[in-house]
Amino acid sequence: TIAPLDRAGRLPRALRRRRPPRFLLHHSRSFLASPSPFLGKFLLPGASAAVLLMLGVLHAKRMYDDKQLVERKERGIEPEFSPDLKASFLRLLPLRSMSRVWGSLMEVEVPVFMRPAVYKAWARAFHSNLQEPALPLEEYPSLQAFFIRSLKEGSRPIDPDPNCLVSPVDGKVLRLGQLRGPGTMIEQVKGFSYPVSSLLGATSSLHDATEEDISGEQTEQNVPESSNAKSWWRVSVASPKLRDRTLLSPKRGIFYCVLYLHPGDYHRVHSPVDWSIFKRRHFSGNLFPTNERAVRTIRNLYVENERVVLEGQWKEGFVAIAAVGATNVGSIKLLIEPELRTNNPGSMALHSQSYDERVYEPEGTGMMVKKGQEIAGFKMGSTVVVVFEAPLSKARGDGTVSSDFGFCVKAGDRIRVGEAIGRWSQS
């Protein structure tokens, strides 16, 4: 049906669209045309509340997982590798994009009056020590700024012993041990291991050190029990004593230590020794979580995840640090190379073994860093793997052997920056 028109050709008054009053039009136009202070005041606390809600969910889940793990350990059950449906489901999620969104939320500025309450809630949830931050809580503009906080001077004393290697991070020791034989493997969890070459890269100079170590062991094994025969002796000019040639060259081993950083931990990475950094490799990969459940269920977890590897030499030989990213932790910052960007949009590599490599100048000398010096940082909890060469034996002046490397920690221990991971005696 067609509505009848009046004499002027207009619709009846009841069917006409009523225009709002002019003052409402004015206010609505100004509200849409320019950002409103009220809108900003609403969005900022709203985003902060969303972040806090997500943190609460993560904390509840972590408490449940920790309780389950403690109960298993009390029963004497060691976690073993066992893939599950959740691990398969994670591969379907856009974890890299989710991590970038999470990073944006973490960088939302928190109103000054809310900062102490927000950061104290974080500290209670993740067991952070609020006596250590270098600045008052009100001076951290966002959760991200608080998360990557620096510490008061002297909070992390560095072990001065020149014959020790210290922890580069605050964290929990997951795995540690010695790498032996060709195709050396690092144990991810009981029942599954991955090649160290896949973690560090095919061009890593660790392979040369490994071959030297293997050839040294084979030479030692080929020496007959009557190795004191005169053919293996030589006369010292300084001393009339006869000495075994095998004692004159130090024997070295290659070791590793895997350290997991909880969300409440201090998240800056420091140098474990005085060393020269020769190369940096950036592997663009997945961003799976790296918590204990993920370690037990995701195959090749550290090899598939995005990571930055620093490699070089210290006084005892090879050393490398692999900073492994995780869900919500795609961003790894290098103080020695601030222009490096990780978890970039569109940079996902189909093959995790492809990587970008940079050689630090001057070639062969690299970049010198001191023990305890800050070199990198995470934007959320993740994992650091340290691979290093250390002496198993050394010759003393009297022709006898001293110095045996040993770990100062064991799996499950908590450790802080500057505390010794391992040391050896030398006289």
UniProtKB/TrEMBL annotation:
GO molecular function terms attached to this record: phosphatidylserine decarboxylase activity
Active site as annotated: 170 (charge relay system), 270 (charge relay system), 382 (charge relay system), 382 (schiff-base intermediate with substrate)
Annotated NCBIfam families: PS_decarb
Cofactor note: Binds 1 pyruvoyl group covalently per subunit.
The name this protein goes by in its record: Phosphatidylserine decarboxylase proenzyme 1, mitochondrial
PTM annotation (Pyruvic acid (Ser)): residues: 382
Mitochondrial intermembrane side: 65-427
Subunit structure: Heterodimer of a large membrane-associated beta subunit and a small pyruvoyl-containing alpha subunit.
Pathway stated in the Swiss-Prot or TrEMBL entry: Lipid metabolism; Phospholipid metabolism; phosphatidylethanolamine biosynthesis; phosphatidylethanolamine from CDP-diacylglycerol: step 2/2
Signal peptide: none
UniProt keyword annotations, A-Z: Decarboxylase, Lipid biosynthesis, Lipid metabolism, Lyase, Membrane, Mitochondrion, Mitochondrion inner membrane, Phospholipid biosynthesis, Phospholipid metabolism, Pyruvate, Transmembrane, Transmembrane helix, Zymogen
Annotated function: Catalyzes the formation of phosphatidylethanolamine (PtdEtn) from phosphatidylserine (PtdSer). Plays a central role in phospholipid metabolism and in the interorganelle trafficking of phosphatidylserine.
Catalytic reactions on record: a 1,2-diacyl-sn-glycero-3-phospho-L-serine + H(+) = a 1,2-diacyl-sn-glycero-3-phosphoethanolamine + CO2
InterPro entries on file: PS_Dcarbxylase, PSD-B, PSD_type1_euk
Top-rank taxon, per record: Eukaryota
Enzyme class, first EC level, given as a word: lyase
Species per Swiss-Prot/TrEMBL record: Aegilops tauschii subsp. strangulata
Any GO CC annotation of this UniProt entry: mitochondrial inner membrane
